Please model this.
Amino acid sequence: MTSVKEFRIDEAATADELGRGTFVFTDAYSVFDWGKMPDQIPEKGASLCAMGAYNFELLESEGVATHYRGVLEQGEVVPLEEASRPPWEMAIDLTQVPDLPNDGREYDYDHYHEAAGENYLIPLEIVFRNRVPIGSSLRRRTDPADHGLAFDEWPEGVVELDDPIVEFSTKYEEGDRYLEREEADAIAGRASISDLESLAREVNRIITEQAESADLVHEDGKIECLYYQGEIRVADVVGTFDENRFSYEGTQLSKEVLRQYHKRTQPEWVQAVKDAKAEAKETDVADWKSLCEADPDPLEDDVIELARNLYCAGANAYTGHELFDAPPLSSAIGAVQRL
Model:
């Protein structure tokens, strides 16, 4: 299913019915679309599972439909508050994920939707942005006027957005890409692109308000959704430090910390990834990793400990519960600033 969580099917979905399954969160991590990196970060999986469960229950309480069923406690599905320890497994409803044939970088979405019917995972990621930081791809891909902003060009500093920007990107292509609204609408199939945007804005509002209650800034994030007999439900996992970017007192509280660390300490590998992706695009090759001429090196032990504390302290702060034995968030952030 993904590089950092495993996927167990208990009852397969059909054309007419949702199935049942489980996400098993691991301590693996991924940056730059690489897949599993050489290291693991202790308790990262449990921190993401706990945050994801917390957010799904928060969304459900606000009337947002999701595929979440609960977390697993000794084989039983229970709400997060009934778990005796931070959970690793999340019970979910399953939908169909048909094959998406491709010829190079051309993907056959008609085939996908013919097989999908009225029960399928929408092959899009819906991205929302509350800020436009320096280095954001948005600055490279678009102009401020494209988003109704009163700038001739992007300012040097962080741009705070009064109205969040919502974008659509592909989910299952080997090299994901941002889409114009018309193409996103076609890829969404029976799901309404307007409904997807409205849902993303509502999810963003709820997560942003929860973050503010913990003195965190919610900078950006994404959702993935399923379509089932006319209803759109939030799927995958939402509002964690892997899916979203948060900051605390100006310092990143997300896997962006690990991205930036690799940029500083392994620039040759980061450049090799960039070059491989560019070559794959130029030569119409889907598997860009086969063109990459370098592999990432493992992290130092102290960096792994720092990352562990960041995930665990952040989960404690966001949920308002002492789920993990971790330093205060201010201490974990201080360590990041010294990195």
Q: What stands out?
A: The CA atoms of residues 99 and 112 lie 6 Å apart. The chain has a mean pLDDT of 94. The first strand starts at residue 5 and ends at 11. The chain has one domain: 5-337.
